[in-house]
Design a protein that fits this description.
This protein is mainly beta. It contains 14 helices and 54 strands.
């Protein structure tokens, strides 16, 4: 007996092989390893029939009764190979798992010194896993079928390499037989196909390198072989795992394997059975799940992921079901519904998602919803669609209504490309006709999609209302208005309009038409992004004349009113210039165009676009024709692209036409012309290409290709706000600066149209905002009548790298200063300058268009023999905005710091003391209050006379007038008022 104290099982197996004869099987040494407790192996050596081929030693425990082995896999595998131990999933490394029997098959080819081994560990599952034990199934199938174990023997297998089916057969052959039953193995062998297949089939992988769960289904006529790897796939190991050979179809995915069963047991039909491994909060579990359906008298019950989970920590099965669907149909009513249970192990909560449909002959209702309890808060949403026909007018027929809401849910409205897949739209426009009994995975797919668009978000919510209608019985429309609150305030108006000409009859089998159009529409306002956007797009199934003539196109109008892109805008029909790099916040818009395959020889394609953004207008189009007949081919391409800028106004047009043809090895023969035009002083070039010959002709004034800078008057009248009637004495003739009382107004004393507007303000809340249409590079404050001083302000550092591009003024040639002067009126009516320290100034920055305030790009050219400055044209991908330029200030009164402070008080002096102190205070009797009679007319008369006295009236009028009140209309105190409200106060007698 050999006792391994260090535990090195591999060395003991090597020793066993070295002492073995090459002629016949022999009993090997007993091997004991100690990993917390001793484990004793019986070993037998098995030489091959031809000793030159190799030798095998099998070590096993062969334990039929008694307590199972409780083993930590990481320690056990370290006795063989630490590199294989590293392949253990994290959830299995330090877990103590119970096994009934252990067997290691160690084989060594004489040609090499490296041994190959397979370690088989039989799991000691506490309860038999039978089909009748599953929820819903019990009682619906026969005892003969129900009592069959799903997996009679479930094992954990560790392999030093990937083994093929043929290699597993060789290892199985080495397992010793039972002494009393020579045809039965002492330890159950690894499952392999009963009959040997072809050479190709036998070369299929049966076990991967590392760790796998292994077993065989116990169902009649469905003895599928299970091999579920849980270790990462070895590098270079690309072959697909197929333990059942070439005939068996297996679907493998990450830590899961599925078998197609398609068996029926009375009313119960079993479609698929799957095995999966997962770690929930570091607790490993192997699951056996089935997709099944039950049909009884018109009622269909479909189950998704019905099965059992086996926690490897205690090997106790727990039964579960993820989704369930129900259907019932007769001549009067159709009912269908589904429910899905999802468990989020990361955030530790459960969620229930469901859908239901109810259909009568005259109307129908469908609904989707979800509920979860997350962070001690309920989270739910419900959305219902009523399909009913209401004839408002023959040209306008309502066909349905939609209504929904969400609480602690945020609504994610998708881009226009995915609009038809959005659950709130799909449920109303095209609910699926596929039955849950036909595809139980539909429950999971459809319901899980809801969580993608309506995730849990505590504090958020949404409402949705929709309308389905038909116009002229040709145009089917659906409009949905959604309002989302919480993470963002967002309003969306979604729409789908579909038209077929001619409109096919409902019962007609002829569905062909000459035009099929589907328009998708999305209008959106987002507060966080500060964007107002309208987008439209033709769906991918649009065509005209023939289904082969596909139509494409879209449009977008977007305006950014706040946020990082404030002031930007884009209007596009069909997209952008081919050389234009679309900013990330611009929408993607497909070309307006068509693609038509006319027969087998000819194809046509056309497209066009228009776009207007902050610094340019783009427009263009392309027409293409391709012809091919055998080896004869030809193509034609014509395209035109326009780039137009303004102030200075300039246009550039590029037009190209190309014709190519060839026949076999002859060709291509090319004819082409390119026309390049610019202006406004019309000029350009024309280039001709004939095979290898190129000729360029110039016409017009070539120097006019670059525009001249505009003057100040043109810039002012075009880009600055016009002067108002109140802006008297303005040197610019434009209302460049503005002053707004942003906060703190209690009353406005004069109309806004007057020269000087007067307000009554609360000084604690007062905030002025001053702004300028011309960005500034520096700021100053009027110190006195003669001098200024630098303005001391806080806020974001302003960008000063800007000029006036259209005027040809570079950034180092422009000097703009913002001067602020604050005065106060004295009692004598004079204006007195206020010291800068009385206020705080916070800078306001914004992004301005590069076309206006960008650094000028100027080039000196010869025009009629003289030097002339011209402005270089903006490139298609020029920066559109100059970021963070100084545009104004927020002005608030300076808050004086409190210079007073209290003395430090020792905490001990504030502590509560329960010690009684005698005679600290004494009660003293006081006389009761006795007031003067309220009928004292003398006192009342004195008060009345004082209220209406001349001296009191003058003082009161001065105070009211200084506060801005109109004395003639706002306040009047007469003798009658004094007589009505004056009462002599109670005073002590």
């Amino acid at each position: 007996m050999t006792t391994n104290t260090e535990p090195k099982l591999k060395e003991e197996l090597e020793k066993g092989l070295s002492k073995t004869s090459n002629d016949a099987p022999a009993k090997g040494p007993k091997i004991t390893i100690s990993i917390g407790k001793d484990i004793e192996f019986i070993s037998e050596t098995k030489p091959d029939k031809k000793p030159s081929e190799g030798q095998t030693i099998v070590a096993y425990t062969a334990k039929e009764k008694g307590d199972p082995f409780s083993i930590t896999l990481n320690d056990l595998m370290a006795t063989l190979d630490t590199s294989i131990a590293d392949l253990l999933p994290s959830g299995l490394k330090d877990k103590s798992i119970k096994f009934k029997n252990l067997m290691v098959i160690y084989r060594k080819e004489q040609k090499t010194s490296k041994g190959e081994w397979l370690f088989v560990l039989d799991l000691d599952i506490a309860t038999k896993i039978q089909l009748k034990s599953l929820p819903v199934v019990r009682g619906l199938i026969s005892d003969e079928v129900g009592e069959k174990e799903l997996v009679p023997s479930l094992r954990l297998v560790a392999a030093s390499k990937a083994f093929t089916i043929k290699e597993i057969r060789v290892l199985n052959d080495k397992i010793p037989n039972k002494p009393d039953k020579k045809e039965e193995k002492l330890i159950p062998p690894m499952p392999v196909p009963k009959e040997e297949g072809t050479q190709e089939s036998e070369a299929k992988l049966s076990v991967r390198k590392g760790f796998s769960f292994s077993g065989q289904l116990g169902l009649a006529d469905a003895a599928k072989i299970l091999s579920l790897p849980v270790s990462p796939q070895a590098e270079g190991e690309k072959e697909v795992l197929a333990p059942g050979g070439a005939k068996e179809t297996v679907t493998n995915s990450n830590l899961a394997v599925w078998f197609d069963i398609d068996k029926t047991f009375g009313p119960f039909s079993l479609k698929q059975i799957g095995f999966q491994y997962e770690e929930k909060a570091n607790n490993p579990e192997i699951g056996i799940v089935i997709d099944a359906a039950l049909k009884i008298a018109g009622l269909t019950l479909a189950c998704d992921d019905l099965g059992v989970g086996i926690a490897l920590e205690d090997l106790t099965p727990s039964f579960k079901i993820s989704g369930i669907g129900i259907e019932y149909k007769n001549s009067i009513i159709e009912i269908s519904g589904a429910l899905l249970r999802k468990q989020d192990t990361k955030h530790e909560y459960e969620e229930y998602l469901g859908l239901a449909r109810l259909k009568f002959k005259s109307f129908g209702v469908s609904a989707i919803g979800a509920y979860a309890y997350y962070n001690n808060e309920p989270s739910l949403f419900l959305y219902a669609v009523l399909n009913v026909t209401i004839v408002v007018d023959p040209s306008f027929i309502i066909t349905g209504f939609a209504l929904g809401f969400g609480y602690n849910r945020y609504l994610k409205v998708p881009s226009i490309d995915k609009l038809r897949d959005f659950p709130l739209v799909a449920e109303a426009v095209k609910p699926t006709d596929k039955k849950f009994s036909d595809d139980s995975e539909l429950i999971t797919k459809k319901l899980s999609q809801m969580d993608e668009y309506m995730p849990i978000s505590i504090g958020s919510g949404f409402v949705a209302i929709g309308l389905k209608f038909t116009c002229f019985q040709m145009l089917d429309c659906f409009a949905l208005l959604t309002v989302a609150l919480g993470e963002d305030f967002e309003i969306n108006l979604l729409g789908i309009a579909k038209m077929e000409i001619p409109t096919p009859a409902k019962d007609s089998k002829n569905t062909s038409c000459i035009a099929n159009m589907t328009m998708l529409l999305r209008a959106r306002f987002s507060l966080s992004e500060g964007v107002i956007a309208i987008e439209g797009k033709l769906a991918s199934d649009c065509y005209i004349l023939s289904p082969d003539c596909r139509l494409t196109g879209g449009f977008a109008v977007c305006l950014w009113v706040s946020g990082p892109h404030a002031g930007d805008f884009v209007i596009t029909l069909g997209g952008y210039h081919p050389l234009f790099t679309k900013p990330a916040h611009y929408p993607t818009v497909p070309r307006l165009g068509f693609q038509w395959k006319v027969g087998d020889c000819l194809s046509l394609k056309g497209e066009m676009y228009f776009a207007l953004c902050a610094h340019a207008i783009m427009a263009g189009g392309r027409l293409e024709a391709n012809f091919k007949l055998g080896t004869l081919w030809a193509n034609f391409v014509a395209e035109a692209h326009f780039l137009i800028s303004w102030k200075p106004y300039y246009y550039e047009i590029l037009v190209q036409i190309r014709i190519q043809a060839g026949f076999g090895i002859l060709g291509p023969v090319t004819l082409g012309v390119q026309l390049h035009l610019w202006g406004p002083e019309f000029a350009g070039t024309a280039t001709f290409r004939i095979i290898f010959v190129k000729v360029t002709m110039e016409f017009g004034d070539q120097s006019s290709r670059l525009p001249e800078p505009i003057d100040w008057e043109s810039f002012q009248s075009s880009f600055l706000p016009p002067a108002k009637s109140t802006a008297q004495g303005s040197s610019t003739g434009a209302d460049v600066c503005s002053v707004v009382v942003n906060q703190g107004v209690t009353k406005q004393l004069s109309p806004a149209t007057t020269k000087e507007v007067a307000f009554v303000v609360n000084p604690k809340e007062l905030e002025l905002v001053v702004n300028s249409a011309i960005p500034s590079k520096q700021a100053s404050y009027q110190k006195n009548t003669q001098d200024t001083e630098p303005l001391r302000f806080k806020g974001k550092k302003a960008n000063t790298d800007f000029g006036v591009r259209s005027m040809g003024i570079k950034k180092d040639q422009l000097d703009s200063s913002y001067n602020i002067k604050i005065t106060r009126k004295t009692k004598a009516g004079n204006s007195q300058l206020v010291d800068q320290n009385q206020f705080r100034f916070i800078s306001i920055t914004q992004d301005v268009p590069t076309a206006l305030w960008g650094d000028a790009k100027v080039k000196v050219v010869k025009v009629k023999g003289q030097d002339s400055e011209r402005i270089l044209l903006p490139e298609a991908n020029d920066q559109q905005f100059v970021e963070d330029v100084l545009s104004g200030f927020r002005i608030v009164p300076q808050i004086k710091e409190d210079v007073c402070s209290t003395n430090i008080i020792d905490v001990e002096k504030l502590q509560h003391d329960t010690t009684a102190i005698n005679e600290v205070y004494a009660w003293q009797k006081t006389t009761a209050f006795s007031g003067v009679s309220t009928d004292n007319k003398a006192r009342t008369t004195a008060i009345k006379n004082n209220i209406v006295s001349t001296n009191t009236q003058n003082n009161r009028n001065n105070l009211l007038q200084s506060l801005g009140f109109n004395l003639a209309d706002d306040v009047k105190l007469t003798d009658s008022v004094a007589n009505s409200f004056v009462t002599a106060p109670q005073v002590k007698a």
